[in-house]
Amino acid sequence: MSFMGLLPHFPSLISSPPLIVLTGNFSATLFDRHYVLIKLENDLDSRRFFGHRLYYVCNCFMKLINWSPLF
User: Fold this and answer.
1) Which pLDDT value is given to residue 1?
2) Long-range contacts for 67-71 (Cβ within 8 Å, ≥24 apart)?
3) pTM confidence score
4) 34: left (phi over 0), alpha (psi -120 to 50) or beta
5) Residues 34, 3: contact at Cβ < 8 Å?
6) Domain ranges within the chain, ordered by starting residue
7) Which uninterrupted H or E stretch holds 26?
């Protein structure tokens, strides 16, 4: 995911209310000051999460981008 502007404080981002209810495990890793890498283990969670491309989290817009090896 990519944040428009600077990334919110990472601990407050992780502890914010969930965007969707996930059924499987996930992990979130700080990639750099604009990007957070989220790994979802459940395919249904992934489809529901990426069903929307733009979320509003911690007073910031968050844009979802699929990762690729060329990223």
Assistant:
1) 53
2) 67/37
3) 0.63
4) alpha
5) yes
6) 2-63
7) strand 26-30
